[in-house]
Amino acid sequence: MKLYESAATPSCRRVSIFLKLIGAEVDRVSVDLKGGENITPEFQNKSASGTVPLLELDDGTNISESVAICRYFDHLVPNSANLFGTPGVQSAQVEMWHRIVEFQGLIAGFQAFRNITGFYSDRENCVSEWGEESKGRAIAFLDKLEMRLSQSSYVAGEQVSIADITGFLFINLMKGAFKVQIEDEYTHIQVWHSKLGAMPEFQ
Fold first, then answer.
1. Do the domains at 2-76 and 89-202 have one common CATH topology?
2. What contacts 108, CB < 8 A, 6 or more positions away?
3. pLDDT by residue (tens digit) across 103-118?
4. Which run of H or E residues covers position 109?
5. Which residue has the higher pLDDT, 129 or 8?
6. What pTM was computed for the model?
7. Which of 74, 66, 69, 68 is nearest to 11 (CA)?
8. CA separation for the pair 55, 69 (Å, rounded)
């Protein structure tokens, strides 16, 4: 089994953090995104989305998309982390908040970064205006996340879930790529982000 990744990307880091939290290990293969290794015919034939991370099983089966890979390992590796929640209301709450954080936060941040920086301008049409609009949407989402974290210890309730992994990476993106200051205005986000950042699995 091999995990193809570019370790610095949020999607690959999501899988890496998830694996640490459930105590799983897998062989890693580094993929050069800037060099276009992921858009070669060989890689494209393996990845349904043409992106990293990509999990290649021993029987030749390939699984792309980070959350799908996390779900596979969650079923494969016995663990009590319950990062997708326990069956019933809790798993529904985790799914709900994870989709909210990903769609309204992280994806907007992705779109802002790609279109403003033109990081992949050699292979996609970058629209700076859409990048700025996406950045504004990502920043606006901080108010919703702040409100939620004023009501619970973690994004989906009182224990760490995949929603926190995605939220943590979203805040890292906002602080790193866009220099958004959260310390003063978003005190609940700051407490939560620092708490996660102190965990070895998130480092």
1. no
2. 134, 135, 137, 138, 141
3. 999 999 999 999 999 9
4. helix 107-117
5. 129
6. 0.96
7. 66
8. 7
Q: What is the CATH number of domain 89-202?
A: 1.20.1050.10
How far is Cα 106 from Cα 16, in angstroms, rounded to an integer?
17
- The reply to whether CATH 3.40.30.10 applies to domain 2-76 is yes
pLDDT for res 12: 97
Q: Which two tokens stand for residue 105?
A: 């936060």
Q: Are 49 and 25 in contact (CB under 8 A)?
A: no
Cα R_g (the chain), whole angstroms? 17
Task: Summarize pLDDT for 145-166 with one digit per residue, the tens.
Answer: 999 999 999 999 999 999 999 9
All structural domains of the chain with their residue ranges: 2-76, 89-202
Question: Rounded to the nearest 5°, which phi and psi values hold at 183?
Answer: -60, -40
Q: Could you tell me the two tokens for 173?
A: 């993106």
Q: Ramachandran region of residue 51, left (φ > 0), alpha (ψ -120 to 50) or beta? A: beta
Cα–Cα distance between 116 and 160 in angstroms, integer? 32
Write out the E strands in the chain: 2-5, 27-30, 54-56, 62-64
* N residues, the chain: 203
Cα–Cα distance, 76 to 63 (Å, whole number): 14
Contact in structure between 127 and 146 (CB atoms under 8 Å) = no
Residue with tokens 């049409």: 125
Q: Is 35 helix (H, G, I), strand (E, B) or coil?
A: coil
